[in-house]
Amino acid sequence: MTVEFAGRCGEQDFERLRPSRAGALENTVNIMKDITMAKSTIRKPVGSQQTFSLAAPEASAVQLVGDFTSWSEQPISMAKDLAGIWRVTVVLAPGRHSYRFIADGVWCDDPECPAWELNPYGSQNSVRLVV
């Protein structure tokens, strides 16, 4: 049984609307290239994870600042555990990094750090070497 519609479409009209196999393959290749380029532009962190900690049970907020945070421009907030130890883990590039803590707005030394350097403000920075 054949059903007639008011408007008729011929087989050539369907062929015109159907994407060609070559066109579909070309689209697939282009999509794969885009995915490959996107993956290559995703940068994996270079360096290693470094954990910083400060015992400050009375503090209500502690931040890590250093040459890797543009100092106080981009401070990293730390989390306090039940024992009052503030910690944060960050990825640092290999090299020498100067840092300090800011506890409730007061700049603090890292008492556990064995390496120090004088800074231009009359105090000292802690130094972490990352290999």
Quick description:
This protein is an alpha+beta fold.
Descriptive terms for the model:
single chain, 131 residues, alpha+beta, Immunoglobulin-like, 2 domains, 3-stranded antiparallel β-sheet, 2 helices, elongated
What does this structure look like?
This protein is 21% helix and 36% strand. By secondary structure, it is of the alpha+beta class. It folds into 2 domains: 11-41; 48-130, Immunoglobulin-like (Sandwich). Strands 2, 3, 6, 7, 8 and 9 form a 6-stranded antiparallel beta sheet that branches. A hairpin with a 4-residue loop joins β4 (79-80) and β5. The mean pLDDT is 84.
Total of helices: 2
Strand proportion = 35-45%
Order of helices and strands: HHEEEEEEEEE
Helix percentage: 10-25%
**Largest sheet descriptor:** 6 strands, antiparallel
CATH architecture of the largest domain: Sandwich
CATH superfamily of the largest domain: Immunoglobulins
CA-atom Rg in angstroms: 30 Å
Quaternary structure classification: single chain
Mean pLDDT: 84
**Which structural class matches the secondary elements?**
alpha+beta
Principal-axis shape equals elongated
Helices, strands, pairings?
Layout: H1 11-17, H2 21-41, E1 48-55, E2 62-66, E3 76-77, E4 79-80, E5 85-92, E6 95-103, E7 106-108, E8 116-118, E9 124-130
Antiparallel strand pairs: 1-5, 2-3, 2-6, 4-5, 6-7, 6-9, 8-9
